[in-house]
Write a structure and sequence with these properties.
By secondary structure, this protein is an alpha/beta fold. The chain contains 29 helices and 16 strands. Among the domains are: 159 residues, no CATH class; 188 residues, Anaerobic Ribonucleotide-triphosphate Reductase Large Chain. Helix 2 runs antiparallel to helix 3, helix 6 packs across helix 23 and helix 17 packs across helix 20.
């Protein structure tokens, strides 16, 4: 495409060769570098440089790109072949090309580059030849976002967002990275819908879900209204096959949509636990049983009202109902739900409901079944219906969360809720001395909020209902990632109370500036159409919803209420206008954290050494902050063999300083209470939700009970995956265990069974925070 470009002489020197290297030579260099990783973590930088050269070789026939010449040519050629939006030709391409900083490629790790090259960088639509280099991706996305800005200002906004993203201070979600600046500008991350109890709704929803998944949207849908098996079907004098066959249909549909191999189709179905088929729902993810009653590609979640947890605590009975006799329950929450539910229970006990339409069992029995399924399959995720609705800032009924349990928006027959996401990289806002650069963080939040608001107007909507909803409420979900890296660099353990305090402070600061940024955008662009019906119009902010939850539950929410910033000023301002009906959501950030080279979301380092399985391959990960710390103390060479043998567990290395043992716990060494406390502190500032993974040492389902009840009592809206530490581990080929002699310490990476430890839960398949299967949520 741009064969006329010439590589600078310095490149040959950096690659230790005078000739232009071949792709095969570069591939071997990558492999050689990766094989040195256990001994030399910095070898990943060598692999990254070789991969950059390989990318340039495919694009231009030589291992270096002169961006000032390449970028304008790339954009014009990309438009010509249909890979880029023709609107990009309206930019001053030469001006933008001069602003590209090639040195920022060095900020990308090998894993990040491999992921970008495999699925994110633009390719020729027909030949699949790579057309886009990494810095061109950031500029292409920035240009795509700036198309919402007035002519004459677009270049300046594109340059601001290019700097923000290329320095990894902020990264938009995967759909935005995929599609901004292309002809298919579906930039939104999440879609929420509900399915009505009719064949027309079930089948039309299937079509809508397929179109949403086609353009990289992750879907959360409420199915509690679908009548149970055996329920009469009027008009055909027959009975319903129930909920499960239709979920199997959706499962097959989503498994068929792979977006050209870049992402899998993804969906989570939400069911309320009073549904008559809830026990069959719990079996959907099991490996055994009738395959037509299993949904291996579909995620499942329970949308649990407070009434259920009260009955679990009281060891009372729980009634299951066919939605055909309880059609109003999905539309009620709080005391209204509880009152109607109690009436139905009394009607059932009095024989006033058809016997086939209800069943009674102890609430704790069902709760233990739910927890047993969680331990076996990682599903269903536990989400809290009443908390989600009581703490909502928008008017309307929330029927479910999204694919990754952090989006909470109203849905109806007329509306499919939409949210677009992006996350601030907290770790990139640390100064050299480990302190937070608060001014830079506030600047990042303001720029990010404007970019997220632009997505709403630029987005390609596969569904008319989605477009109507998004333009009415204009929600965005600004999130955070890199929290665990910040803790590590500041010398804090995730288990320490100071970690929760820091999470509280960071979430308050980001929320404060995100809300003010949305208010300022309202002054420039106008408030969202349903503003008058929202809590914002009453001068309320997210932390104010805790008091309402206290009142509705008639018991205090067990979370610290400390405020550090002047929220009265914010309350007064938001009363006058808000551009966005929602502003924050803490998504898992599985893939964009990988690209940004930091820890995902609020999650800890899974281990200090593990392998990461993604759609782009399997990669060795060694905690970089630990490596730095050991090297500063002159301990790396001596302790790295022990670190591998101990599967990253510093507690098993007596020579490791105690402060490092405390500072670098693995995921299963962090207490469930610490996970919940961090999430609760963040949730008090977040108007939508927090996607919270949990890691647990549990032998019995009952051991998980208090963890989830604590999450409920502390006012969380949801939890996500629960991983129970495997009770068996693969034997390490690098460690002499029952062997006649020790093998060489460093062998082929493929032989190192120690890296298999990230298959944390054999039945649930993929862990979103490690393998990137949940890319709709970043």
């Amino acid at each position: 495409m741009v064969a006329e470009l010439r590589a600078p002489a310095s490149l040959a020197t950096s690659l230790h060769t005078e000739a232009v290297p071949s792709a095969a030579w570069l591939e071997q260099r990558i492999l050689d570098s990766l094989q040195r990783l256990p001994e030399e973590p910095e070898a990943q930088a060598d692999a990254a440089r070789a991969l950059l050269a390989k990318i340039a070789l495919e694009i231009a026939g030589q291992p270096h790109l002169a961006y000032r010449d390449y970028f304008p040519t790339y954009v014009r050629y990309g438009v010509e072949v249909g890979a880029l939006d023709p609107a990009l030709l309206d930019y001053d391409l030469e001006l933008l090309a001069q602003a590209i900083v090639p040195e920022r490629d060095a900020l990308l790790s090998y894993v990040a580059l491999a992921t970008l090259a495999d699925r994110y960088l633009v390719r020729h639509p027909e030949t699949r030849q790579l057309l886009e280099a990494p810095q061109a991706l950031w500029m292409r996305v920035a240009m795509g976002l700036a198309l919402r800005e007035p002519r004459g200002e677009r270049e300046q906004w594109a340059l601001r967002w290019y700097k923000l993203m290329s320095t990894l201070h902020y990264v938009p979600s995967t759909p935005t990275l995929f599609n901004a600046g292309t002809p298919h500008h579906q930039l939104a991350s999440c879609y929420l819908a509900e399915v009505e109890d009719s064949l027309e709704s079930i089948l039309s929803s299937a079509h809508e879900f397929g179109m949403l998944a086609k353009y990289a949207g992750g879907i959360g849908t409420a199915v509690s209204k679908i009548r149970a098996v055996g329920s009469p079907v009027k008009g055909i004098n027959g009975t319903s096959g129930g909920l499960i066959p239709f979920l199997h249909l959706y499962d097959a549909l989503l498994a068929s949509v792979s977006q050209g191999g870049r992402r899998r189709g993804t969906m989570c179905v939400y069911l309320e636990p009073w549904h008559l088929e809830v026990e069959a729902f719990l079996d959907l993810r099991r490996n055994a049983g009738d395959p037509y009653r299993r949904t291996p590609s579909l995620n499942t979640a329970l949308w649990i009202p407070d009434e259920f947890f009260r009955r679990v605590e009281a060891d009372a009975d729980w009634y299951l109902f066919d939605p055909a006799v309880a059609p109003e329950l999905p539309e009620l929450f709080g005391e209204a739900f509880s009152a109607r539910y109690r009436t139905l229970c009394q009607q059932a006990a009095n024989g006033e409901l058809p016997r086939r339409a209800w069943r009674r069992l102890p609430a704790r029995e069902l709760w233990l079944q739910i927890l047993a399924s969680l331990m076996e399959t990682g599903h269903p995720w536990i989400t809290f219906k009443d908390t989600a609705n009581h703490r909502a800032m928008l008017a309307g009924m929330i029927h479910s969360s999204n694919l990754c349990t952090e989006i909470f928006l109203p849905t109806s027959h007329e509306e499919v809720a939409v949210c677009n996401l992006g996350s601030v990289n907290l770790a990139r806002h640390l100064r050299a001395d480990g302190t937070m650069d608060w001014d830079q963080l506030a600047h990042t939040v303001r720029l990010a909020m404007r970019a997220l608001d632009n997505v709403i107007d630029l987005n390609l909507y596969p569904s008319p209902r989605a477009e109507a909803s998004n333009l009415r409420n204009r929600p965005v979900g600004l999130g955070m990632m890199g929290f665990a890296e910040v803790l590590a660099r500041q010398g804090l353990s995730y288990n320490a109370p100071a970690a929760a305090e820091l999470a509280d402070q960071l979430a308050e600061f980001v929320s404060y500036h995100a809300i003010l940024a949305s208010h300022e955008l309202a002054g420039e662009r106008g408030s969202f159409p349903t503003f008058a019906q929202s809590r914002w119009a009453r001068g309320q902010v997210p932390i104010d919803t805790i008091a309402e939850l206290d009142e509705r539950r008639e018991q205090p929410i067990a979370v610290d209420r400390t405020m550090r910033l002047d929220w009265d000023v914010v309350r007064e301002r938001v009363r006058r206008g808000m551009r966005n009906g929602a502003v924050m959501a803490i998504a898992p950030t599985a893939t964009i954290a990988l690209i940004a080279g930091t820890t995902p979301s609020l999650d800890p380092y899974y281990s200090n050494v593990f392998s990461r399985q993604t759609l782009s391959g399997k990669f060795l990960e060694i905690n970089p902050v630990l490596v730095e710390s050991l090297r500063q103390r002159g301990l790396w060479t001596a302790l790295v063999p022990r670190l591998i043998e101990a599967r990253g567990d510093l507690r098993q290395i007596p020579e490791c300083p105690p402060d490092l043992v405390d500072r670098f716990p693995t995921a299963y060494q962090i207490t469930p209470e610490a996970y919940i406390e961090v999430a609760a502190r963040v949730q008090k500032w977040v108007d939508m939700g927090v996607s919270r993974n949990l890691y647990h040492h549990a032998d019995r389902p009952g051991q998980l009970s208090e963890v989830y009840l604590t999450a409920w009592r502390k006012g969380l809206k949801s939890t996500y995956y629960c991983f129970v530490q495997p009770r068996m581990q693969a034997e390490q080929s690098t460690v002499a265990v029952n062997k006649a002699r020790r093998r060489p310490q460093w062998v082929q990476l493929a032989e190192q069974d120690v890296l298999a430890q990230n298959s944390m839960h054999s039945a649930n398949g993929a862990h979103c925070s490690l393998d990137g299967t949940c890319e709709s949520c970043q």
